[in-house]
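Hi R.,

Here's the chain you asked about this morning:
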Amino acid sequence: MEKRALQGKLGRRQFAGTAAAAAGVSLIATPVLALEPSKGQGSCESIGPLSLPEGAAFTPGVFVDQRARKPIYLPGMNAGLAGYAVSEVLFWTDIMMEHAMFMSLLMPGDHLRGPRSEARQFQIVFARHFLSARDGGYRDDGLSWLLSSTRASVLPFIEYKRRMQRAQEAGTLRSLVWPLFFDHIAREAERFAARLELLANGSAALQRDEVSAFWTTIMADHLEFVAHLLDPQERALVADANARAEQLYQAHTQRVGSGQLASMADEVIDFKTAAEQGIETGQIKSIIDPSLADHILREAVRFSDEIQRAQ
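And here is the predicted structure, written out as tokens:
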């Protein structure tokens, strides 16, 4: 595994269960032990990050960009199909795990125990796919099971997200999740499922128009989420986030060149990096959890990478 160390702060050790890592827990042998959420004293339900054993990807052509708190898995310069496929599965299953975590966090109370439990189960499912991708040494001709099994889990997760979105919009679900957030994370899962199908057919290519159309709206949504989660007194930052979101929405409706898209991606990365640091240090007032700030930063890095690789 190649490793790109670009001003990284914290690796996966921040999120891994040290006891599980020290014991060398095997997901396949003892999945319950490996993925069992830790419960604090007096706690009856855990909805935070899962404790995963540490490790490096064994498939050649996968490298780690360390500009965020957690690793960002990307294909290396000379990656073959396996490197592209495994890096994509690692990146997006990590994101899917966090989608499930965010939904469980935003569904408090006994009346939401059912949908919250569904979200928690998806978190465990994608943790298993993540570890299977990371800990297996895959070759170009041995990807079928990884891609098909992962996609088989993504499809019901899409259905769950869309079902929750419809219920929230209809007023039958009273969660703290915006309908746009449900739609946003469903679009990401739908795109992941489509990418898995392409990779299964032997294609890792990225089309510039598709990359632009997908990521400009995703980045714009992120900035609007940030604007709505900042303290109302952070007026300048709220205005800045909304203005940047509008630029990205405009880029979505117009044909923007690769160079301009790359510059926009870099600007979003800088904005999100500064926001994450400000949130962590308390210099920015918000209700943004640092894990959410890190989540959207990692996606911005992925946007930048895909723009550079798109044809």
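One quick note: The chain has two domains: 1-27+47-204, 205-311.

Cheers,
M.
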